[in-house]
Inverse folding.
């Protein structure tokens, strides 16, 4: 198969290879689609599984769960991460929780409701079949995690507790205090460790993927750098799985870990994989506002806080000014002088509106001069727990959010039990990613993409607690089946070999690029360029975007990139540990990738979810979609440095959830 | 408005495991008290990079105190003097009392943790301890409904507390014997307190302790330095729990 097999010749339209769905035919209903599909696809004979080798890049929730499950099935897994241990993947930092349609609270939840909420939350820009499957397997994830010993929060009766998250009217979020990601990842890491012990996973830590190797157009291996010895190594396999997370660090400051990068997906894209919806990024409403230019990252305060915290700003600019200067304390502002704007504008969902809506509302308040952060621009709003503490007592609030409050105090030196938190939106998650079909395979045969790295399930906006769900759904319950469909058809297990010329050539190119970086010998640290790019991206391709700003960025990104290649200083050598080189290599990729993000944002002249085009809003200032023109996925094909990429599309059809103007009022 | 601070950083530089290493001094000037310790290091490093000099190598990733990547000795203490804090969550306001003084940075030192470069060490021994048995053997897909297993809230909470270990290695670095009892005990306790972990409870503790010993971690010194150094405040109870389980396992043969 090639890209062309996915596209019909005339119009660049992509096919997702999913099962046929017809709401009027019970035998082709969405409820039975995944079952039917599993029956229809090819399978690998259990005895043959041990003959196949699978490369999995990444050990986050998606990568670790996939590697463990593939190992259990009998495949030989070669697994990579750039940290010193698989347990340190960025998933570890997820705080608030994971959704599942268990309906343990008996509050009317169901698979269909989770499906509905996710499609609507994504502003009708995701694939119904994928989302339905996600909602279906969500329940298995909780079972699996509990059996592994993941210590979810429990009630006194010993049963599992739930909380609510934005965009939903039911309580379906499972959590382990504010460390849900840590506990789920450790569960997956333990399952993974068991397979390492069994010899089914060979784990390569401190190893960074630099490029993808194709043989006859199919993904058959990768080129990596051993970060300790500096050695450039080649690995061959029967197929490749990327589980390398999202690209929020294109904004320089984000809530992501410092090492999060776009390198593996961007390099794959340069080799022919289509990059879908790169402009769909999520700006999370509740983060600690930036304090100064020295700042290296932004810290998220879990969305779960919006269960009990009330968001407000002073009603007048004058009061806000007094708060900023410290002349008046937030708690001294009278009730009638406060504007609980989310509760006011969205009475039904109140503080629990989806993230994109909450973020834009905060920005609007601050643009109006009502920001309360004690920084130069004053961009920040209050998240106040006073009422919750009065209602439930300080201990109850502590037991729910203790570690988050501690973290907040450690960073800001303010005690949130006594004074409201100050929060502001920050880049957090990327819905865009490599295009995949229903089998989670990209348009490059043999290249599978899972977790945040793919584009699949969240449309234009992700609901809280759904990323952990998707990463684990992909890794535990979807990829392990669908990968067999490809493997059962590949010519011969073991056909891929690092001695083949394709490996030698790709390796040489990777070495050349690193040498080029080391030989620029400029005078500016790589951070200078990254910061420059990031601030501009946030300003022009962040919460609000317009034509003028985007056209400016097309030019500006190129200029920064050129400047980088002339003036960056990368000290040290390529043989041995060299964090400056690692960083420069990642920033160089962000500088290329940013361009396709801008193209995507520019062509999609509608607003949808997290993609807000100033030109396309309702009278009330909400995102206004244009379903006539844009009810599709945009997937970009790389054509060479500085060249405009080709835009492919996949039409989206909504047979179950009828697209409407989203309303959370 | 907040003031700024100035420090001399006396930093251990070592180019690879075999190098003998030396201290070098750097000036950290006009440091905002709201910066984190690693943000101060970023500023020093950014300057070094611009001068085409190799920056100080230290490990870090999440900068939220959860991934366990960061950590070195700050004035002789793992993660510095502030209790229950990782290096990345340590803020310079805690160093106001030392304004103008010298802060000493060294890598965690312990036999099983060799230095890779400067402040970066190899902690892969921890992974091998978990691989030896720190899990519940449950195949994907074979789990019963989550509510078929009720867990008493008290045990669930204690298991959770033990499970919050971030695997940073501060416990080992603080122990005069370089013991990994707190790390290993935390996993043994997490899985040993809940019903799901019972079947393998006693084989698990034996395998993990054997692996720990073969990695050259020392015996418990009984000083309790580890729990004081632990950024997550893992309690010494996990060590007594592990010792109890080990004893029972020996009777079981
Ligand atoms: C602060 C924070 C809180 C969050 N809270 C929640 C929450 O409560 N609920 C929720 O559902 N979601 C939450 N999210 C989102 C969620 O955590 C992520 O989307 C999810 O964990 C991503 O998992 P992943 O497995 O796809 O990738 P990651 O966990 O990012 O893992 C990526 C892996 O790829 C490896 N890798 C990357 N690049 C390379 C390379 N070039 N070479 C080799 N290896 C590479 C890394 O080493 C790592 O192992 C949160 C995110 C943040 C930032
Ligand atoms: S960098 Fe993750 S714990 Fe400090």
């Amino acid at each position: 198969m090639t890209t062309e097999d996915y596209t019909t010749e005339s119009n660049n339209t992509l096919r997702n290879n999913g099962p046929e769905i017809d709401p009027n035919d019970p035998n082709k209903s969405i409820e039975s689609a995944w079952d039917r599909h599993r029956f229809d696809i090819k399978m690998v004979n259990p005895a043959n599984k041990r003959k196949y080798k699978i490369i999995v890049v990444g050990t986050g929730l998606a990568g670790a769960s996939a590697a463990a499950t593939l190992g259990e099935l009998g495949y030989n897994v070669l697994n990579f991460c750039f940290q010193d241990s698989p347990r340190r993947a960025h998933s570890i930092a997820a705080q608030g929780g994971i959704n599942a349609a268990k309906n343990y609270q008996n509050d009317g939840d169901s698979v269909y409701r989770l499906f509905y909420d996710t499609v609507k939350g994504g502003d009708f820009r995701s694939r119904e079949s994928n989302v339905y499957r996600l909602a279906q397997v969500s329940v298995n994830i909780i079972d699996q995690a509990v059996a592994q010993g993941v210590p979810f929060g429990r009630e006194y009766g010993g049963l599992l507790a739930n909380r609510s998250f934005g965009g939903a009217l039911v309580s379906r979020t499972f959590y382990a205090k504010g460390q849900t990601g840590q506990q789920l990842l450790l569960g997956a890491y333990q399952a993974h460790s068991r397979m390492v012990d069994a010899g089914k996973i060979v784990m390569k830590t401190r190893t960074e993927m630099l490029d993808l190797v194709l043989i006859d157009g199919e993904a058959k291996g990768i080129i990596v750098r051993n970060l300790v010895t500096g050695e450039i190594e080649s690995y061959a396999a029967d197929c490749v799985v990327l589980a390398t997370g999202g690209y929020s660090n294109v904004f320089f400051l984000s809530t992501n870990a410092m090492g999060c990068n776009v390198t593996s997906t961007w390099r794959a894209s340069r080799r022919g994989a289509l990059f879908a919806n790169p402009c769909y990024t999520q700006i999370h409403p509740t983060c600690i506002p930036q304090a100064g230019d020295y700042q290296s990252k932004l810290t998220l305060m879990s969305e779960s806080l919006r269960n009990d915290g009330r968001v407000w700003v002073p009603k007048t600019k004058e009061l806000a000014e007094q708060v900023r200067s410290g002349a008046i304390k937030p708690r001294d502002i009278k009730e009638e002088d406060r504007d609980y704007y989310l509760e006011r504008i969205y009475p039904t969902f109140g503080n629990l509106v989806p993230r994109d809506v909450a973020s834009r509302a905060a920005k609007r308040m601050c643009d109006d001069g009502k920001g309360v952060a004690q920084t130069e621009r004053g961009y920040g709003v209050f998240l106040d727990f006073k009422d919750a503490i009065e209602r439930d007592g300080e201990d109850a609030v502590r037991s729910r959010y203790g570690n988050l409050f501690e973290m907040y105090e450690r960073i800001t030196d303010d005690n949130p039990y006594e004074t409201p938190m100050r929060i502001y939106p920050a880049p957090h998650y990327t819905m865009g990613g490599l295009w995949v079909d229903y089998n989670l395979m990209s348009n490059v045969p043999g290249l599978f993409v899972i977790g945040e790295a793919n584009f699949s399930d969240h449309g234009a906006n992700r609901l809280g607690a759904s990323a952990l769900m998707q990463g684990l759904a992909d890794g535990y319950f979807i990829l392990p089946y669908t990968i067999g469909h490809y493997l059962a058809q590949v010519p011969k297990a073991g056909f891929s070999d690092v001695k083949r010329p394709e490996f030698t050539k790709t390796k040489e190119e990777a070495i050349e690029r690193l040498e080029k970086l080391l030989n620029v010998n400029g005078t500016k640290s790589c951070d200078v360029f990254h910061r420059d790019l990031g601030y501009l991206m946030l300003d022009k391709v962040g919460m609000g975007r317009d034509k003028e700003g985007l056209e400016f960025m097309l030019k500006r990104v190129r200029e920064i990139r050129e400047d980088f290649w002339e003036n960056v200083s990368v000290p040290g050598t390529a043989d041995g540990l060299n964090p400056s080189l690692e960083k420069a290599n990642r920033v160089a990729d962000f500088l290329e990738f940013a361009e396709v993000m801008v193209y995507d944002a520019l062509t999609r002249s509608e607003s949808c979810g997290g993609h807000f085009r100033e030109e396309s809003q309702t009278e009330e200032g909400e995102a206004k979609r244009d379903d006539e023109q844009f009810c599709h996925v945009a997937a970009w094909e790389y054509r060479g440095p500085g060249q405009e990429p080709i835009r492919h599309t996949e039409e989206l059809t909504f047979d179950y959830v009828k697209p409407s103007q989203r309303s959370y009022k | 408005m907040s003031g700024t601070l100035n420090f001399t950083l006396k930093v251990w530089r070592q180019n690879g495991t075999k190098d003998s290493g030396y201290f070098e001094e750097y000036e950290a000037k006009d440091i905002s008290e709201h910066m984190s310790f690693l943000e101060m290091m970023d500023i020093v490093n950014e300057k070094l990079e611009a001068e085409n000099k190799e920056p100080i190598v230290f490990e870090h990733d999440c900068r939220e105190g959860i991934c366990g990547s960061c950590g070195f000795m700050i004035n002789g203490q793992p993660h510095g003097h502030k209790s229950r804090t990782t290096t990345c969550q340590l803020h310079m306001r805690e160093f106001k009392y030392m304004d103008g003084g010298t802060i000493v940075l060294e890598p965690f030192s312990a036999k099983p943790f060799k230095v890779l470069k400067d402040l970066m060490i190899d902690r892969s021994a921890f992974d091998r301890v978990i691989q030896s048995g720190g899990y519940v053997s449950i195949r994907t897909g074979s789990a019963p409904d989550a509510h078929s297993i009720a867990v008493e809230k008290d045990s669930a909470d204690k298991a959770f507390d033990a499970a919050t270990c971030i695997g940073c290695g501060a416990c080992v670095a603080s122990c005069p014997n370089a013991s990994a009892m707190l790390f290993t005990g935390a996993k043994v306790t997490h899985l040993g307190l809940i019903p799901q972990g019972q079947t393998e409870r006693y084989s698990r503790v034996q395998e993990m302790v054997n692996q720990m010993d073969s990695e050259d971690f020392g015996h418990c010194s009984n000083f309790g330095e580890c729990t004081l150094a632990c950024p997550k405040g893992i309690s010494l109870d996990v060590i007594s729990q592990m010792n109890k389980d080990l004893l029972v396992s020996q009777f079981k043969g």
Observations:
- The domain at 28-283+429-487 of chain A is CATH 3.50.50.60 (FAD/NAD(P)-binding domain).
